[in-house]
Amino acid sequence: MSNKIKAYYDEAYPPVPDKTTLFWRKFVPWQIIRFFILNLKIMRIVVGGHS
């Protein structure tokens, strides 16, 4: 009886972001724009629920 330990498959590991993705995640002006877009979406939901 052999108790070999199998390695995890590549599919078991999370994907690693590429350089472009990391750039956009760290680019502050883009984060500010996304922040305001998210806030507008939230406000639309809140205001729509209070009408």
Mind explaining what this structure looks like?
There is one protein chain. The protein is mainly α and 51 residues long. The chain has helices at residues 19-26, 28-49.
Extract low-pLDDT stretches: none
Termini distance?
70 Å
Structural class: mainly alpha
Portion of residues within helices: 55-70%
- N-to-C order of helices and strands: HH
Largest β sheet strand count, sense and barrel closure = none
Number of strands: 0
> What proportion strand?
under 5%
Mean pLDDT: 88
Radius of gyration from the alpha-carbon trace, in angstroms: 22 Å
What's the shape? elongated
Number of helical segments? Answer: 2
Short descriptors:
51 residues, mainly alpha, elongated
Topology:
Layout: H1 19-26, H2 28-49
In short:
The chain is built from 2 helices and no strands.
